[in-house]
Amino acid sequence: MKRQESETLEFKKTTAQLREAVISLCAMLNKHNVGIVYFGIKDDGSVFGHEIGQKTLADISHEVRNNLKPTPFISITSEIIDEKNVIKVFVSGDDTPYSAYGRYYTRVHDADIFMDSKLLRKYFESKDKTYSKWEEKATSYGIDHVNEELLIQYIRDANDTGRLNYIYRNPEEALRKLNLINEEGFLNNAGYFLFGNDGPVLLKEVIYPTDERVSFTDLKQFRGNILECIAEGLKYIQNNIHYFSEIIGTKRVETPEIPLGALREIVINSFAHCQYQKGDSNEISITKSKVRIYNPGGILNDANPLDFASGKIGSKIRNPLIATVLFKNGMIDAFGTGFDRTFRLCADSKVDYEYFSDEYGFTFLFKRGKNDKISDKINEQNDKIKSLNDKINDKIQPSETPNLSALDEMILQIISDDSSITIPKIAERVKKSAITVHRHIDKLVSKGIIERIGSRKSGLWKVR
Questions:
Q1: This prediction's pTM
Q2: pLDDT one-digit tens code per residue, 385-395
Q3: Which of the four CATH numbers 1.20.120.530, 3.40.50.40, 3.30.565.60, 1.10.3660.10 does domain 117-370 have?
Q4: Which of 59, 72, 183, 356 is deepest in the core (most CB within 10 A)?
Q5: Each residue of 125-168: pLDDT tens digit?
């Protein structure tokens, strides 16, 4: 019997093509809500056979479940065809659109085609409770109300992601490519809120010194478009949280108390899903123990973010056109996976969080001051400094204790950590000239705090 690939059937010779198989399953789900891939059958339909072990089936299951989102119904079985073993992977589901490795595909005959923005929008508009009619409503603003510099940069970023293939020529053509302007040359709401140059979106930012939120130390109202507000919100948080700094090699490395990737996901989410027609504003507030990100939108259908993270349900999009534009330039990866990345990043850094949705909107809270990783590093650094001070104090009588400068102490710390370090390397670490470092080292040697053991080339420093 002649076997032939189709819009719901795909053949793979071996599991070496597992990634391509997941993409085919994604494309078939998006086109027909069902799909089958056989491993052990060649493209021409002839049976090649496949060795089947428990690990083989487990590897297939792991790859499909981790990279096909939201997770559809999956069945993986072994069959005998033409007296040879083959593996059958069957999927079904109607929670479109499905993504594979963060991208969206559809099936045309027996080929997997990258889904264009118009088709992707149709999938989201078919879901309940979107506000695409508001997005598409024409405004009274033309291209003279567009931040062209921002639009050009957006096109560059979208091309870099591989999700757009367009050479910028003029703002009207670019906006038409993104479905953000009508035939008469007027921006729709989505286009105006994304690229408007006169501040269509309000972002409130505030810092409270305590958790009572009675008085504030900083209050700011920023007006911009969606892209500008996302950049402003991320910058505001990053400038007002704590970092642990350490020198690794010759570089200064800073670790934030909250993972920046998690902050990015939630801030972008708040603007992608905001209910702009309500007239309320997004808010970012920072207190002693929390970073709060709020948007006046809430999660559609009262869905639980854990269901998005687990892949149990697909993304529920309030603003499909805005979300698609943010997807094109890489701000949004696969729809519905932002919470998953946020939860994993917080778990890796041991950062607690909470979230809730009410009649006013959706709030996500990152808890500060509980990052054990940073606390451990700070404690480790303090222990090193204390140990170094103890060494110095043990060797020097109180009456002889020298008055050390901050640079002296930095040099002592570096030498204590690496006894073979050279003066040029120390100079790089403290960002001073080698002559200055040499002068301070001579002072430390003359006071009997450090000494050089061996030659200048192969010797070692010793803290006395």
A1: 0.60
A2: 556 555 555 55
A3: 3.30.565.60
A4: 72
A5: 665 445 557 888 899 999 999 999 999 999 999 999 888 999 99
